[in-house]
Fold this sequence. Notes:
single chain, 2,3-Dihydroxybiphenyl 1,2-Dioxygenase, domain 1, 4-stranded mixed beta sheet, 7 strands, 28% strand
Amino acid sequence: MRADLQPTPSARLIAVSLDCSEPQRLAAFYLALLGGRQLWAKESSVGIEVSGAVLVAQRVEGYLPPVWPGTSIVHLDLTADDIDVAAERAVGLGATWPEQPDPRWRVLLDPAGHPFCLTPFTPDTVV
């Protein structure tokens, strides 16, 4: 689609939800890693605002973490000036370090097992 042909949206993205067994623990991990603020906390979910986005850690009974590499449906891409320093900090906060597919970025697993990437790359235009 050409950039000058903008479709009329019929919906808006309001949040990214991450399934887990311990919403408070997962939300605390991302707050410590990314900064931001907690929007709400219930037994079933915790919402946090980070960098203008909303992440929702959502309790799912019988939650099984994705297997890396292979079964992840969605993952977060995070940018950092020094991805090695950011990866070290993430591990200190509870992330784990799986097999690395490419030396240009770092893939880690959050405390609930979701993969996320630390990358030095950012889009030319952020909307």
